[in-house]
Amino acid sequence: MYQSSKPGGDSPVSIIGAGIAGAWQALLFAQAGHAVTLHERSDAAMTESTSHWAGGMLAPWCEAETSEPVITRLGVRSLALWREQLPQTPFNGSLVVAHARDRADFERFAKLTSGHRRLDARALGDLEPSLEGRFRDGLFYAGEGHVEPRLVLPQLHARIAAAGGRIEFNSGADAGDLDGIVIDCRGLAARDTQPELRGVKGEMIIVETSEVELLRPVRLIHPRWPLYVIPRGDGRFMLGATSIEAEDSGVSVRSALELLGAAYAVHPAFAEARIVEFGSGLRPAFPDNLPRIAIDNDRIAVNGLYRHGFLLAPALAELTLGYVARGVIDNEVMQCA
Q1: Which domains does the chain have, with CATH numbers?
Q2: Which residues contact 121 (CB under 8 A, 6 or more apart)?
Q3: Smaller CB count within 10 Å for the chain: N or C?
Q4: What angle do CA 296, 165, 45 make, to 5 degrees?
Q5: Residue 311 in this model has a pLDDT that exceeds 70
Q6: Where are the beta strands (DSSP E) in the chain?
Q7: What pLDDT digit, counting tens, does each position of 122-141 carry?
Q8: Tens digit of each residue's pLDDT (9 = 90 or more) over 317-328
């Protein structure tokens, strides 16, 4: 990191996009004493936001299997910010398991990640009684957590208001019409100024059953992608994993079958679960799948969070605030015009 010129620590701040990236920007800037206005094109339900369809896993060590070290670095910092801002955030860890036929992939996952301890079958059953006798061992990432996106976004919005920030829903604000510092967190909608962005579809299914209880996300190693089962409370679970290079909004029959089949492989009781919802969101990604804070004087764009939105948003907001307040530049993430 190095020091640069800054746009002005007392300027009003307008943020476009109230999804997870924009919400964290607004919260930290409002708490730092800025006059903050958060603009959102949709209504308070946020059903048009990518965040609405997210898993909400806070798993920097698990993500190291397929991500660059910067994702782990920023993710670990974000865990501290989640704990600081929302102390009720569940940090029950993450569990990774595999069936015998996928043993080689399981061992590869273990070698490529850190922050875990290996559990034998007995310890795994003690940790998650619903999985007793189902797997011979597992990897437990004790420091990781998860949030329910549809619950935590309204909580962040409430904290922004409590810190003195304003939120304007159904707002068609354009960056060119706003004064002061403008932070663009529009995701794929920002392709008018960042044409290299692409959408990566993530599909999900929510099911409901009283026959399975889990306290933490469980990843099942799969030859093509790991399935994750995330507890959502009240007997509901989110099933997800897909990262498809497509920009439609549907869930394919193939994906649905594979997600449901993999859930059944975690526990046969999922075969009798009730399907509550199918859905998909388009994650904004740059060609390298890494996040970027692009700075052009008092115009800042925060984008490209890919599949790590809830994991990276707090740390990226802290970096943006550090630049505005002190001119600090993080060379791995920030680009200055």
Answers
A1: 2-83+147-195+287-336 (3.50.50.60), 94-142+199-285 (3.30.9.10)
A2: 133, 135, 136, 137
A3: C
A4: 95
A5: yes
A6: 2-3, 13-16, 36-39, 57-58, 94-97, 117-120, 137-141, 145-146, 166-168, 181-184, 198-208, 218-220, 227-233, 236-240, 274-285, 292-296, 299-303, 328-329, 334-336
A7: 999 999 999 999 999 999 99
A8: 999 999 999 999
